[in-house]
Amino acid sequence: MSRPVLLPLAFAVLALAAVPAQAHRHAAPEAATAAPAAAFPADAALRAAMDRVRNAVEAFEHARHGHMGPEQVRALSAHLDAQVMRVFAECRLEPQADASLHVILGVILKGSRAMREAPGDFAPVDAMERALADYARLFDDPGVAATR
Q1: Per residue in 73-97, pLDDT tens?
Q2: pTM, rounded to two decimals
């Protein structure tokens, strides 16, 4: 896919993330919670991209402990959004794995947006951490621990 196509695609994905969950779903909600018989394969690009996403989500813990101000939380949120966009741009998965990943990343984008809007409310971090736990459970990524 060429770069001119990726930018509008990235904006479209961000716009979709802004739509309430009831109005738009990439996959059924159970797609991110029901573990497949065997974990979905995670290639090097997906593992690296999700590692960057995980690091950004974990950085919100510094804010939870009062080590970041609101503007730093907003900047971290923008960084997290960019990392999620990289996942969308770089990863190519089979349809069921892709649908599950989209649900996971949708939760992360929604949480990131909420952190931007209310940088002192850390409830979205808990939801993002649960989404990352779903990723660890559903995808064969040796870099993350999972309980299947």
Answers
A1: 999 999 999 999 999 988 889 999 9
A2: 0.74
**What is the distance between the alpha carbons of residues 138 and 148, in angstroms, rounded to a whole number?**
8
The CA distance from 25 to 29, in Å, is 8
Rounded Cα gap, residues 136 and 54, in angstroms: 11
Q: Which residues are CB-contacts of 144 (< 8 A; sequence separation ≥ 6)?
A: 50, 54, 132, 135, 136
* Tokens representing residue 123 in the block: 């409830």
Output the six-digit token pair for 102: 């989209």
What's the token pair of residue 2? 């060429």
Q: What is the dihedral of CA 4, 78, 116, 15, to 10 degrees?
A: 20
Q: How far is CA 84 from CA 36, 37, 38, 137, in A?
A: 23, 26, 24, 19
Residues of the chain with pLDDT under 70: 1-35, 146-148
Please tell me the distance from the alpha carbon of residue 45 to that of residue 62, in angstroms, as a whole number: 27
Length of the chain: 148
